[in-house]
Amino acid sequence: MDLFSLKGKVALVTGGAGVLGGSMVKVLAEAGCKVAVLEYSKDKVEAFVQGLTQAGHPVIGLVGNVLDKPSLENARDQVLQEWGTIDILVNCAGGNQPGATIQPHQTFFDLSLDDLDKVMALNLKGTILPIMVFGEVMAKNKSGSIINMSSMSAQQALTRVFGYSASKAGIDNITRWLAVEMAQKFGEGIRVNAIAPGFFIGEQNRRLLLEEDGSWTPRAETIISQTPMGRFGEAEELHGALIWLASDGASFVTGTVVAVDGGFGAFSGV
Known about the structure:
Layout: E1 10-14, H1 19-30, E2 34-39, H2 42-54, E3 59-63, H3 69-83, E4 88-91, H4 113-141, E5 144-149, H5 162-186, E6 190-197, H6 206-209, H7 218-225, H8 239-246, E7 257-260
Parallel strand pairs: 1-2, 1-4, 2-3, 4-5, 5-6, 6-7
Helix pairs in contact: 3-4, 4-5
């Protein structure tokens, strides 16, 4: 028996055409999953999925808004019509807004409440709604693995990223809350966990971490100085935690947040 086999499973990844989400879609497909990729942009998801289907992977693209329940229900119906079930949900959709970030020349009192609302909605509600819609399939089947995306900023008070940190702290809480809810109401077959990446360079934080010439910004240098491994993570380094949490190898693991951070969370700075 292969504890980590995902062959024949049906996975759905929100934000699945982004840097981290796209990497996760690819490894799930390579592991034998049928993968549904949900994105807000039709052009973006179609372009991404085309490359995978040409490589022979069973992948479909879905257009949906993680903040709009009817569009998610439509996406769910498409997956069920195509493959009949949903076994794995990976909530990768998320992001930040400039006004919810405190710049060096600003203070907390300069925070944009409009941008804060947008960040909280996208990261927190944009995880809750997919679980409500796609997780209901798992509840009926009494089986499934839900994997949320947290952040090391949820666990430590990082400067500047106020809105993002607050919303990701909420992800940690709902991960634990729903792990209890699902197990007690729908049985031990449904697990809810989260992955907390450390610092990876992606679309959302590139301007914070890299200068125009590709060199590190002062913030990036500070991060690296606090990361014992002395570097940023690569998207592929999330794959091990993803495959483990999605598979029967983690059959007794629920309500946990797995840090993949190069030791950042363990480092005291002294």
